[in-house]
Amino acid sequence: MAVQVRAAALTNFAEVAASLGLDAALALRRVGLQPRVLRQPDQRIPTSAVVQLLEQAAAATGCDNFGLRMARSRQLSDLGVVSLLLTHQPTLRAVLATLIAYLHLVNESLAMQTEDAGRLVIVREEIVSSLPARQSVELAIGVLYRMCAALFAERWRPVSVHFAHGAPADAGLHRQLFRCRLVFDSGFNGFACAAADLDVPNPAADPGLARYAQGLVEAQSPGRDSAQQQVRRAIYLMLPTGRATCEAVAQGLGTSLRTLQRQLDAEGATFAALLHEVRRDLARQYLANARYGVGQVAAMLGYSTHSAFTRWFVAQFGCAPEAWRRQGKPLV
């Protein structure tokens, strides 16, 4: 089953496209979407089509911050009924935990996790895609930033915002929107925040309304994602940190190793096969960024040596990673 996202992900696509001289309806049809989806925010559409649409729109308009332009006018309400539940969480830490729990209602391809790092908390946010997804990543990070700002106003003060891709020709819009240190060519996509800021009370939180919203969200929930989807997202987040083992993923998902293996078996999947798929996806993305050395890419994909990575890469793609970079060969 194709990974899907609510059509609300394309809120204001037409407006941004028009401001840059792009025919939105034609752009949508080129990726197999009908223009009417822009009027149906709760309709589910393929994530791959959204990723392609934004990348093609950026290329056609010469605007390398197309996704961020969409993010800057997004509202918390664009998340649908989940937004009411988020509004009444007691702290930002609880907001992020709740959003992670209900990501399957917002965007099945979005992977998120929070990671304590001393006085900082790292908020990782990745798009699970085999296609280049720079615009979708910037849209997702921009939406998350604006959501936190809408809920916590001046109490939302991230230390830095991180992008795994390179800097744009002009980072003016990034500086205007994020108002904190920008780190491009980073090891992850997301934010670094002061741990204390995540535990500041939310004065707008109402426990009664939170319980009411919880009921609404649960009523419309189609159920949890499949084990495969959950594991794939976890591997995306954990592989670059060297922690993408079956045991660690099971722990991160709050289950036992045996239970996770049983769930994957029931779906006809294995952890090894999912790890392999994610490695192929990330190889495409990391090697497309010339600032990542091949040795660095090898480490980010979980290989302890350059030679082991090269052997795997040749077996998968028919050439060495250095040759692919010289030739500009597509990875399929």
Automatic annotation (TrEMBL):
Keywords: DNA-binding, Transcription, Transcription regulation. Residues 229-327 form the HTH araC/xylS-type domain. Pfam families: Arabinose_bd, HTH_18. SMART domains: HTH_ARAC. One of its GO terms (molecular function) is transcription cis-regulatory region binding. GO terms for cellular component: cytosol. PANTHER family: HTH-TYPE TRANSCRIPTIONAL REGULATOR GADX. This is AraC-like DNA-binding protein.
